[in-house]
């Protein structure tokens, strides 16, 4: 018996039993049991696909977790408040402010960004040593992580006001000489940093002045009696005076208001040249004024640090103070990363710069000997 033929949905003739067995599913004829298997299989395949997708998502999430965790940590760090660094300087921000940019340069070179990683609490004594104690106490109240101190008595003032806070000396005499450190190699205290060993070289000032102007017979010494190394400086000056057999006159000052009378007194006593006994605080703040007063008397002047020669002094001799301030950033960086100040050796400069201002020499009618010009590290024309 021939099977009765029907036309399926696709328009093709098939036997009736085949048509009955193969109802159209998505346009494809399949036996009923295969349709069931197909549909079951389709659901099973979907479940497997879902499982695989879930597994893939889990693996991707697991792989991404360390990166997400790092990003979270980085975000947390960016929200961490910047550390507070105290800045105590016996000088003047307006008249001797190059030290601060030098320190910031050093910090930037080590990856520290002001405002993001750290903020500075600045205190400037403007050459008045009597203000250092109050300013140091103000800084201590701010609870800084570290205090950068310079120069003169600033380190001692900071150490007294904040005995548990690390102190980095950026420039000045040896902390050992003030009893603030046990030794240069092992400070063993909360004070470390850089020294300019100015007390050791101040004895050379008279030698260099006489080498540049050998006809000088009477030399004036301008002394800040408030500096911590006053006794050492006076001892060095008297030893040099005795060695070179010149007449000496001393004028001691304690504040800026004393400068004009002191210069006038030295002029009245007939001095022919001036040695500025190291005083980074008062003299540093009043540097230009003192040099101007001396030049008005037609005195050749020698002082420490190239800034004096740049401002008109005939000679300057000393370590580069800006290099010291940049180096101070190294100590701050080490301390902020966990180092103990007592374990960080105090550094001394190894290079000292002799600067001659030839413009001043010509104005004063002084002929600088050729051998001295050859010794100079820099000549200002």
Pick out its properties.
15 helices, 381 residues, single chain, Rossmann fold, alpha/beta, 44% helix, 2 domains, elongated
Provide the fold topology:
Elements: E1 5-7, E2 13-15, H1 16-21, E3 24-25, E4 28-29, H2 32-78, E5 83-89, H3 99-109, E6 118-124, H4 132-141, E7 146-150, H5 154-161, E8 167-171, E9 191-193, H6 198-201, H7 204-212, E10 218-224, H8 230-244, E11 247-253, H9 259-268, E12 273-276, H10 282-285, H11 287-296, E13 301-303, H12 306-310, E14 315-318, H13 321-336, E15 353-357, H14 358-364, H15 370-375, E16 378-380
Parallel strand pairs: 5-6, 5-7, 7-8, 8-9, 10-11, 10-12, 12-13, 13-14, 15-16
Antiparallel strand pairs: 1-2, 3-4, 14-15
The gist of it:
With 381 residues, the protein is of the alpha/beta class. 44% of the residues lie in helices and 18% in strands.
Description:
- The protein is α/β, with parallel strands linked by helices.
- It has 2 domains: 83-197 and 323-343, Response regulator (Rossmann fold), CATH 3.40.50; 199-318 and 351-380, 3-Layer(aba) Sandwich (Rossmann fold), CATH 3.40.50.2300.
- 44% of the residues lie in helices and 18% in strands.
- The protein has helices spanning 16-21, 32-78, 99-109, 132-141, 154-161, 198-201, 204-212, 230-244, 259-268, 282-285, 287-296, 306-310, 321-336, 358-364, 370-375, and strands at residues 5-7, 13-15, 24-25, 28-29, 83-89, 118-124, 146-150, 167-171, 191-193, 218-224, 247-253, 273-276, 301-303, 315-318, 353-357, 378-380.
- The strands form 4 sheets. Strands 11-10-12-13-14-15-16 form a 7-stranded mixed sheet, with helices on both faces. A 5-stranded parallel sheet has the order 6-5-7-8-9, with helices on both faces. A two-stranded antiparallel sheet has the order 1-2.
- The chain is elongated, with a radius of gyration of 40 Å.
- Mean pLDDT is 83; it is low at 1-53, 57-62 and 72-78.
């Amino acid at each position: 018996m021939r099977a009765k033929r029907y036309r399926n949905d696709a328009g093709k003739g098939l036997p009736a039993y085949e048509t009955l067995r193969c109802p159209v599913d998505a346009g494809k004829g399949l036996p009923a049991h295969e349709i069931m298997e197909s549909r079951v299989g389709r659901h099973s395949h979907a479940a497997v696909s879902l499982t695989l997708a879930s597994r893939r998502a889990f693996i991707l999430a697991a792989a991404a977790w360390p990166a997400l965790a790092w990003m979270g940590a980085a975000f947390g760090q960016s929200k961490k408040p910047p550390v507070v660094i105290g800045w105590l300087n016996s000088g003047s921000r307006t008249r001797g402010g190059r030290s601060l940019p030098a320190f910031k340069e050093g910090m930037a070179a080590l990856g520290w960004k002001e405002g993001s990683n750290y903020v500075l609490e600045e205190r400037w004594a403007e050459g008045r040593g009597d203000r250092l104690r109050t300013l140091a106490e103000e800084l201590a109240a701010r609870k800084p992580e570290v205090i950068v101190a310079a120069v003169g008595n600033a380190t001692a003032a900071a150490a007294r006001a904040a005995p548990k806070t690390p102190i980095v000396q950026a420039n000045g005499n040896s902390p050992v000489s003030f009893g603030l450190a046990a030794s240069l190699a092992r400070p063993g205290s909360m004070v470390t940093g850089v020294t300019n060993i100015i007390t050791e070289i101040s004895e050379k000032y008279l030698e260099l002045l006489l080498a540049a102007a050998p006809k000088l017979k009477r030399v004036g010494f301008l002394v800040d009696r408030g500096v911590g190394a006053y006794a050492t400086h006076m001892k060095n000056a008297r030893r040099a005076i005795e060695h070179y057999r010149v007449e000496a006159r001393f004028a001691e000052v304690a504040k800026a208001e004393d400068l004009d009378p002191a210069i006038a007194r030295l002029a009245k006593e007939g001095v022919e040249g001036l040695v500025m006994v190291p005083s980074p605080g008062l003299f540093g703040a009043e540097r230009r004024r003192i040099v101007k007063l001396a030049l008005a008397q037609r005195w050749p002047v020698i002082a420490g640090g190239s800034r004096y020669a740049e401002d008109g002094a005939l000679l300057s001799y000393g370590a580069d103070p800006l290099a010291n301030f940049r180096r101070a950033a190294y100590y701050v960086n080490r301390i902020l990363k966990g180092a103990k100040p007592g374990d960080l050796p105090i550094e001394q400069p190894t290079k000292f710069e002799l600067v001659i201002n030839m413009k001043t020499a010509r104005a004063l009618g002084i002929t600088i000997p050729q051998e001295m010009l050859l010794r100079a590290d820099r000549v200002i024309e």
